[in-house]
Design goal:
The protein is of the alpha/beta class. The chain has helices at 6-9, 16-25, 55-67, 82-92, 111-125, 146-162, 176-183, 206-209, 212-217, 236-239, 241-250, 254-263, 276-281, 292-300; strands at residues 34-38, 41-44, 72-74, 100-105, 130-135, 166-172, 192-196, 221-225. A hairpin with a 2-residue loop joins strand 1 (34-38) and strand 2. Helix 3 runs parallel beside helix 4 (82-92), helix 5 (111-125) crosses helix 6 and helix 11 packs across helix 12. It starts with 5 loop residues before the first helix and ends in a 22-residue tail after the last helix.
């Protein structure tokens, strides 16, 4: 199977382990390379998101995804669909060890509440462990908690990981200041920061990208949620001129181009869909590559901007969380 040159020459070079895992995976199922996010823990570079899906839709989408070769599924307690996700995993017949499951617990929790919430998350999924557990937000959704709760919650996360209930732990929506609170006390690496990122943000500043450069500098895998800008109120990354004109050159769709721009940089993506044709298309990203010129065009794009505040320039709003 031909090895895409981006595995050796992309903007954020991946390890040799990623290349070897790609080659091993390329002979069966979906051809998805994996990225080491913590010692011995490998995340598939594309997975299925389930945000805003109720339990029945999540069940259907996950069941389709696992049937067509996905192994990476993303959910959260706050999505209120973990029972559906867990049932689809169980009914799929796919061995648990072959899957990569991510969940999230709410932010702003004290130690004891976080311990209980983590176990509740596993119970909802019907699993004994997840591959990745994230703190969903640097505070409560109302902005309460601050540094002290971030530290307490992270200590609960570390205990959860050390008990074998998560292979790796991380965060979501965190900016530099929030990450620094954890880096000052952690004994387990912050494996991932899951953040909104998509075409249109390639030249955006740290208040839009939640300090992407800081994550890169500290070996925190920067994972993209809403990689097709679902919250943006636009179809620009689905049928817009930029992505569709580039896609036409490769026989690929606009969404595939938008997703490829990220994975070609080493950024894992979790697009969501409950339609089989789109689910299959969203993972067909790894046996072709965008030219340097097309990558540069996509990086230079300033639309759609981050969905968040209405400030000029727009920001995610995450870095304003106390």
């Amino acid at each position: 199977f031909p090895t895409p040159s981006w595995l050796f020459n992309n903007m954020a070079p991946l390890s040799l382990a990623v290349v070897l895992l790609f080659l091993a995976a390329s002979t069966q199922g979906a051809q998805v390379p994996k990225k080491e996010i913590a010692p011995g823990v490998y995340m598939p570079m594309a997975g299925l998101g389930t945000w805003e899906y109720n339990s029945s839709v999540a069940y259907s989408a996950v069941k389709i995804a696992l049937k067509v070769g996905y192994t990476h599924i993303d959910t959260a307690m706050g999505y209120n669909n973990q029972d559906g996700v867990g049932k689809a995993i169980k009914d799929s017949g796919v061995p648990r060890d072959n899957l990569f499951i991510t969940s999230k617990i709410p932010g702003g929790l004290d130690y004891e509440t976080a311990v209980k919430t983590l176990d509740t998350s596993l119970s909802q999924l019907g699993l004994t462990y997840v591959d990745l557990m994230l703190v969903h937000f640097p505070a409560t959704w109302g902005g309460k908690g601050g540094k002290e709760m971030r530290i307490q919650e992270w200590k609960a996360m570390e205990a959860f990981q050390k008990a074998g209930k998560a292979k790796a732990i991380g965060v979501s929506h965190y900016c530099k200041r929030h990450l620094e609170d954890i880096l000052a006390i952690n004994t387990v690496p912050i494996a991932v920061n899951q953040v909104q990122y998509h075409v249109g943000m390639g030249s955006s500043g740290p208040n839009a990208t939640d300090d992407k450069d800081f994550c890169d500098e500290h070996n925190i895998t920067y994972e993209s949620f809403s990689p097709l800008c679902g919250p943006c109120g636009t179809m620009e990354l689905i049928n817009g001129t930029l992505v569709t004109s580039i896609g036409a050159k490769y026989g690929k769709s606009g969404p595939q181009v938008a997703l490829k721009w990220q994975v070609q940089q080493g950024i894992p993506v979790i697009p969501k869909s409950d339609k089989q044709s789109h689910i299959e298309e969203n993972i067909d990203l790894f046996d072709w590559e965008l030219s340097t010129t097309d990558m540069a065009k996509l990086t230079a794009a300033t639309s759609p901007p981050v969905a968040g505040t209405n400030s000029k320039p727009p920001t995610s709003g995450d870095c304003d969380v106390p």
